[in-house]
Amino acid sequence: MTSDLVPYFPLRKARVHEVYGPGSLSFAAVAAALAGGDVFWIRERWRPEILNPSGLSAYVDPSKFLIAQVKDQAEGLAVMEDALRDGHLSLVVMELGEPLSLTEGRRLQLAAKAGKTIGLCRISEGMGSNAAETRWHCTPVLDRDDSTLQRWEITKNKSGTLGVWHVRWNTASRRLNVVSPALE
Amino acid sequence: MRPIGGPFVLTFKQSNANRIYCLNAEAERQGLHRGMAYSDARAFCPDLQSRPADPIGDERFLNVLRRWATRYCPWVGLEGADGLVLDITGAAHLFGGEAMMVTDMRQRLSRAGLSVQVGFADTRGAAWGLAHYGEGLAETGRTLDALGPLPVMALRLEDKTVTALQRLGLRTISDLVESPRAPLTRRFGPGLMMRLDQALGRQPEQITPLADPPHYGVRITLPDPIGLKDDVMAGTSRLLDSLCAKLKAREAGARILCLTLRRVDQEAQVVELRLARPLRDPQRILPLFERGVADVDAGFGIDQMRLEATQVLPLPAQQISSVTSSRKDQLEDLISRLGTRIGLENIQRVLPADSHIPERSFLIAPAAYSEPEGPWVALRPRPLSLFPPEPIAGVGAQPPKQFRWRRMALSTARATGPERITPEWWLEDDNWRSGVRDYWHVETRQGRRLWLYYTPQNPGWFAHGEFA
User: How far is A4 from chain B (nearest CA, A)?
Assistant: First the structure.
């Protein structure tokens, strides 16, 4: 990992972050791998997509995952707040369907601060909350000789600058490699 | 059920035939007996009424009766399927003597609608004989006088032995006592003389009192009704302390706890707490009650609280070491706490399963009832997300060069495959009706990496997952 990504990734602790774009799932998987510890994944019951543990095993051990199936977003947020405040998890991921209000976003930040846990919301484009610490836009990029290349862009950062990186996940060593965009 | 006049039997199906399980006195007078085929009994007695027997219910009732009988003496055991045996040594004077005690028993049981046969003697064997064949009291030291005229059946012997004794002309117990012992032992074995000696008190016999099953319930009645959440929690804390002490004494842990709060208007509110693992630590259980207690409507106040562990599992004491971290405990507490909010079964974990079918390569199990398992082996790259197959336009066995998926125009840059997965014919699955699938890992120029499959038996292309 090159030094210029270090301040922002692995994600800053005790904060809630946001990610969107087609590569957001692998971003969450990499975040879970680098957070190292128990991961709580909150999803609404009606969503057709499911997380595939066999695919996840390339990033992180799926036995570290706990999945909460919730009825709707309000219930999910309540669970997320509790899980963040608990302080024994390393990462809490939630898939959001509707934008967060300022109050909800702030409450999540306070809970994350109290529990010193990282929160990550997978959102749709243009749905971000002002309370988020960072917001990432992730898109997979075609690469001639590798199939994990992604373009990660910070579009909001409360305590730093914005930037773009091209990263690649190394399955064997379970590391994130930053590559030069010239490869594109 | 209303009382029935006339002959009445309970029937029980044994080896494909309805047989008489139990009968009333009137039916007995008609010449019926236990074990008789029900159809025969109907032939003897056309106006016979019957009901199916319920041996499990009978056993439960007998256990209730056994518990009731401890009002007479502490040593109460079961005798067969329909009897109780009481050792009233040293307890009879509390009821004004033995005869008074028996009268008391009879009165109380007949008031409850039970017909009872009581035998009372110095020994267990003699009491059994009297209860079954004589019904009466044998005075202390004069067992033989009461027992002598009874038939030999009263000695708890096998049917074969009884028949043989009757053929020898030994019909009553006094006949048996007077005849020489040695030839009888040689003829019938030691069992016969043992039973006789037990009945006459020459050989000891114990009764086994049954212990009451442990009861994990505690309650508190308050002089003044309470309504504040903190007060209720303080009461719960007291109840938990004594319940957990009980659990600890028996090395058990509660899995499901039920807190009943009775209000002054006689309404009861129930707070159920389901735990992720058996626990008996009050400090860990108490905070989990907070959410349920906060939701309770106290009305005009709560004046009685009752806490019961409805599901109790063994929880042996464990060695605490520096290696076993408290991390796991804390995670389980979190699962319990969130479980009170969204339901314990909605917090799940994934377990590996032995199947090549992508949807069945893992199991989803409630986290509270499973342990994490591993290792996870992916022989080939698998997508991060799976969704129900979405059809895309395409023909032929090679992935389409251009296709539309979710209203996006995508063009294939590189396709890896095919990987053929055949359905598991031994499991019925509607999604796999279309036959074998050839899976392709397709990387598009636009960046998306999809998992497509082609079904050669019913030509068509579908998207099944995304690598992202």
Answer: 24
pLDDT tens sequence across B335-375: 988 988 898 889 999 999 888 898 888 999 998 888 888 78
Q: Distance between alpha carbon B92 and the CA centroid of its chain, in Å?
A: 37
Contacts of B382 in chain A (CB under 8 A): 52, 54-55, 57-58
| Interface mutation target, options A45, A50, A52, chain B, most CBs of B under 10 Å | A52
User: CB-CB: which of A22, A54, A88 is closest to B376?
Assistant: A54
Residue ranges covered by each domain of chain A: 10-136
φ/ψ bin of A11: left (φ > 0), alpha (ψ from -120 to 50), beta (otherwise): beta
A-chain residues within 8 Å CB-CB of B344?
Answer: none
> Percentages helix, strand, coil for chain B, rounded to the nearest 5?
35, 30, 35
Interface check B381 vs A, CB under 8 A? yes
Q: What is the DSSP string of A97-156?
A: SSPPPHHHHHHHHHHHHHHT-EEEEE--TT---TT-SEEEEEEE---SS-S--EEEEEEE
Query: Half-sphere exposure of A94 toward its Cβ, with a 13 Å CA cutoff?
Result: 29
**CATH architecture, domain defined by A10-136:** 3-Layer(aba) Sandwich (3.40)
Would the CB atoms of A140 and B367 count as touching at under 8 Å?
no
Yes or no, beta carbons of A50 and B387 under 8 Å apart? yes
Write down the residue that tokens 């991060």 correspond to: B384
Residue A146 contacts B, CB cutoff 8 Å: no
How far apart CA B13 and CA B206 sit, in angstroms, is: 34
pLDDT digits (tens, 9 = 90+) for A55-80: 999 899 999 999 999 999 999 999 99
Q: Which tens digits make up the pLDDT trace of A75-131?
A: 999 999 999 998 889 999 999 989 999 999 999 999 999 999 999 999 998 888 899
CATH architecture assignment, domain B217-337: 2-Layer Sandwich (3.30)
CATH number of B8-53: 3.40.1170.60
**Residue A92, CA atoms < 13 Å, CB-side half-sphere:** 32
- The CATH superfamily label for domain B117-213 reads 5' to 3' exonuclease, C-terminal subdomain (1.10.150.20)
Chain centroid to Cα B62, Å, comes to: 18
Radius of gyration of chain A (CA): 16
In this structure, what token pair is assigned to residue A96?
């959001």
Q: Which residues in chain A have their CB less than 8 angstroms from residue B449's CB? A: 140, 147
Kindly report whether the global pTM for this prediction surpasses the value 0.90: no
* Contact across the interface for B467 and A139, Cβ inside 8 Å: no
Query: How many residue contacts between A and B have a Cβ separation below 8 Å?
Result: 140
Nearest CA in chain B to A21: B468
The DSSP annotation for B47-101 comes to T-EEEE--HHHHHHHHHHHHHHHTTT-SEEEEETTTEEEEE-TTTGGGGTSHHHH
Q: Is B443 on the interface with A (CB under 8 A)?
A: yes
Is the CB of residue B465 less than 8 Å away from at least one CB of chain A? yes
CA distance B383 to B312: 42
